[in-house]
Write a structure and sequence with these properties.
mainly beta; 2 domains; 1 helix; 5-stranded mixed sheet; globular; Immunoglobulin-like
């Protein structure tokens, strides 16, 4: 299957190592971001990193964490996807005095906003050597759904509904037993969206039949859902129960969630799901 054009950061060649936390503002539409040499300062401005002799080629950028914390191991990247609400931490290396631009590019993604510069980084003239990025970062226990696990399906249509329903603060859409691990399938019938679930951790199992990129293999709470695709998640729910205080799931593109592309779920004691009211009182004046 051909790779899907992806929004997010593209990092290019970034000598001392610096951690940078990159969080996409919620009002940004998805785009692909890359770090490239500033033409005025790059000694190889006529050639890409791949043209450097192997003995002189600096290490690339490494993604070390995403939404839910550290990855199991660093992932070297030239580019990576980052949609609204997703988070990433990455480490890049700089030569003394080097200037690097973090740049986003629309890359043909249907809701992209074109190409523009996000951030210019100027390294100090004197840098101290830094240790290598560890080969292992944190133990990651896979989120594994048991045999016969509940499968919930969510259909995204247009920009204002999930499963054909706009958000209603008085309505409970899903009731989940505490501590459950479930499979959630997100089917997108239209243009690009993403999907965020409150108060859970999940791992992406498939993106339209293919495994997720290695940098997206950790614990997450937000996932990119490309146009005309299906994304499958293994979702781990917590143990705190409250049948009257719902959590939300929604597209994290601001104009979509504001238009009603959102639903609500509650976490309840196992075995009491059928006893829970699917309506709750709403409060005004806030």
């Amino acid at each position: 299957m051909a790779p899907v054009p992806r929004p997010g950061p593209r990092l290019r060649r970034p000598h001392s190592t610096s951690p940078i936390r990159c969080g996409c503002p919620r009002f940004f539409t998805p785009s692909r971001t890359r770090t490239a040499y500033d033409a005025s300062s790059c000694p190889c401005r006529r050639a890409g990193r791949e043209s450097w002799p192997a003995s002189r080629r600096p290490p690339g950028a490494h993604v070390i964490a995403n939404d839910g914390g550290l990855l199991g191991a660093p992932v070297e990247v030239e580019e990576f996807s980052l949609t609204p609400g997703e988070r990433a931490e990455f480490i890049v290396t700089f030569a003394p005095g080097e200037q690097v631009v973090l740049r986003t590019a629309g890359n043909g993604v249907d809701i992209g906003e074109g190409d523009f510069d996000l951030l210019k980084l100027i390294a100090a003239k004197d840098l101290k050597p830094a240790p290598d990025v560890p080969a292992r970062l944190a133990p990651l226990t896979p989120i594994t759904a048991p045999a016969g696990a509940r499968v919930r399906r969510f259909r995204l249509s247009g920009h204002d509904a999930i499963n054909g329903k706009e958000m209603d603060m008085a309505r409970i859409d899903e009731v989940v037993p505490a501590g459950a691990v479930e499979i959630w399938e997100i089917e997108n019938n239209v243009y690009s969206h993403n999907f965020h679930i409150h108060e859970v951790a999940f791992q992406v199992l498939e993106m339209d039949g293919s495994p997720p990129p290695a940098y997206a293999a950790g614990y997450k709470d937000t996932v990119y859902v490309p146009a005309k695709s299906v994304v499958r998640l293994a979702v781990q729910f917590g143990d705190f129960i409250d049948p009257a205080s719902p959590y939300m799931y929604h597209c994290h593109i601001l104009r979509h969630e504001d238009s009603g592309m959102m639903g609500q779920f509650v976490i309840v004691a196992p075995g009491t799901e059928s006893q829970v009211s699917l309506t709750i009182p709403t409060h005004t004046g806030h």
